[in-house]
């Protein structure tokens, strides 16, 4: 059973790394977005560093959303999902493996690139690690909330357009606590750990709820 | 000559026997989008038996296969399987549907290794399965570079890398040339000899002497 879990994880990581897999797409999109914002805002460094964490978080959210529609759609289209259904592995664990692979190829690179991109939004040096930390623990929530939406739209031809509309409202709590934890690292009255731990809790909760909900949605497909 | 010997050796390796299993449908009905596709369908499929499922387009051949896979719920009646104890039916079936279930970015070997790890019950190693279907040279090629017929054969090689008693084949011979169709008949025959069962939706003759035809729909 764990062999099947690892097989799905390994296959999705390999697919993301191959040409056209879209593994690097989210990162490039994130980079583009964060590079564009300072040009739009103008040369006000104070403003930029104040809203820097929010820009990074919004960028990460949008970058996660753009590749999500392919999470199950590809498998549905080519028939691989039927193979996964025929496996002895419970569908929930198969979803967990796919969600994990999605996070490893999307959320994790975004979090690792955040300190570098923080330079572009004039983030103070002491805030870089906390911002990267919030992205590291917060992006799994985005992947697993997104997995539910991706499972619901797996059978739809234009699912890519509906998915962000479905998923974005559900990510609001993650965005609020992610940005608030990042901001508290820049100063303020809220201690860093309070929103940070809530963010961890959100990720852990969506890890469970998201996989169960996505598996239920996949079972109803057709 | 040596190549065909190797193929027979590989086929001989699949000669393991399955425990007896019976799949039966009682008064099965299928409804899709409000339309009644078929009803009052009864059949029994036992070990060593093959059914060639025929019927015009839209008669519900693929729907019946989807039902056995658990992807569609019967509108009435039920499917029963005996002889496998508590194991769910899903874990006995081996599906080669009209979609090939292959990842075009991965090589043929990677695709087969994935299926073997996913479905369990390992049979032939990926390379030997590819040799058995006559495509040993494509192992390291991404499936996207293969022709439709070659992809279909790689999909059929899945049946060999993992051993499951009930083969569900949807138009297995589509896109296959005559030599490959003969190869497919050989694969199916050795599966039946090993005590497996086959349900194949088809428009042409299946080529198996033991197969009986079941026509659904009007």
Structure description:
- With 222 residues, chain A is an all-alpha fold.
- Chain A has helices spanning 2-17, 25-41, 45-68, 70-78, 80-86, 91-105, 107-118, 125-152, 159-167, 172-185, 193-220.
- In chain B, helix 1 crosses helix 4, helix 3 runs parallel beside helix 5 (148-161) and helix 4 (126-132) crosses helix 5 (148-161).
- In chain B, strand 6, helix 6 and strand 7 form a beta-alpha-beta unit.
- Helix content of chain B is 32%, strand content 24%.
- In chain B, the strands form 2 sheets. Chain B has a 5-stranded parallel β-sheet, sandwiched between helices. In chain B, strands 2-1-4 form a 3-stranded antiparallel β-sheet, covered by helices on one side.
- With 218 residues, chain B is α/β, with parallel strands linked by helices.
- The interface between A and B is medium-sized, with 27 and 30 residues.
Any descriptors?
heterodimer; A: mainly alpha; 81% helix; 0% strand; B: 218 residues; alpha/beta; Rossmann fold; 8 strands
Please report which band the strand proportion of chain A falls in: under 5%, 5-15%, 15-25%, 25-35%, 35-45% or over 45%: under 5%
Number of strands of chain B: 8
Most extensive chain interface and residues per partner = A-B, 27 and 30 residues
CATH topology of chain B: Rossmann fold
Distance between the termini of chain A: 26 Å
The helix count of chain B comes to 6
Structural class of chain B: alpha/beta
- The CATH architecture assignment of chain B turns out to be 3-Layer(aba) Sandwich
What is the CATH C level class of chain B, in words?
Answer: Alpha Beta
What is the N-to-C order of secondary-structure elements of chain B (H for helix, E for strand)? HEEEHEEHHHEHEE
Outline the biggest β-sheet of chain B: 5 strands, parallel
């Amino acid at each position: 059973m764990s062999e099947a879990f690892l097989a799905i994880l390994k296959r999705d990581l390999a697919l993301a790394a191959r040409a056209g897999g879209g593994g690097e797409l989210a990162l490039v999109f994130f980079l583009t977005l964060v590079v564009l914002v300072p040009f739009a805002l103008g040369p006000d460094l104070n403003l930029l560093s104040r809203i820097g964490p929010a820009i990074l978080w919004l960028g990460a959210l949008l970058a996660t959303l753009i590749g999500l529609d392919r999470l199950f759609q590809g498998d549905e289209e080519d028939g691989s999902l039927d193979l996964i259904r025929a496996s002895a592995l419970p569908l929930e664990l198969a979803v967990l493996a796919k969600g994990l692979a999605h996070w490893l190829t999307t959320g994790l690179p975004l979090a690792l690139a955040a300190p570098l991109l923080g330079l572009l939004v004039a983030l103070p040096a002491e805030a870089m690690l906390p911002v990267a930390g919030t992205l590291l623990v917060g992006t799994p929530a985005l992947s697993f909330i997104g997995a539910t939406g991706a499972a619901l739209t797996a059978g739809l031809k234009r699912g890519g357009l509906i998915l962000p509309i479905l998923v974005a409202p559900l990510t609001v709590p993650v965005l609020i606590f992610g940005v608030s934890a990042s901001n508290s690292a820049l100063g303020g009255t809220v201690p860093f750990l309070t929103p940070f731990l809530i963010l961890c809790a959100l990720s852990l909760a969506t890890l469970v709820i998201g996989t169960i909900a996505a598996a239920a949605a996949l079972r109803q497909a057709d | 000559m040596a190549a065909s010997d190797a193929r027979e050796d590989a086929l001989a390796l699949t000669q393991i026997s399955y425990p007896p299993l019976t799949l039966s449908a009682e008064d099965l009905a299928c409804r899709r989008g409000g339309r009644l596709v078929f009803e009052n369908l009864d059949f029994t499929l036992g070990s060593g038996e093959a059914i060639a499922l025929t019927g015009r387009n839209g008669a519900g051949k693929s729907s019946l296969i989807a039902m056995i896979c658990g992807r569609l719920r019967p509108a009435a009646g039920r499917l029963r399987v005996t002889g496998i104890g508590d194991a769910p039916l899903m874990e006995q079936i081996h599906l080669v549907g009209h979609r090939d279930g292959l990842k075009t970015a991965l090589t043929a070997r990677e695709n087969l290794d994935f299926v073997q790890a996913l479905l369990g019950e390992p049979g032939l190693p990926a390379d030997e399965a590819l040799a058995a279907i006559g495509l040993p040279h494509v192992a390291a090629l991404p499936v996207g570079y293969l022709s439709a017929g070659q992809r279909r054969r790689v999909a059929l090689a899945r049946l060999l890398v993992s051993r499951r008693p009930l083969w569900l084949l949807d138009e297995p011979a589509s896109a296959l040339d005559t030599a490959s169709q003969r190869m497919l008949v050989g694969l199916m025959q050795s599966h039946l000899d090993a005590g497996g069962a086959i349900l194949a939706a088809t428009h042409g003759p299946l080529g198996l002497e033991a197969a009986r035809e079941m026509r659904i729909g009007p």
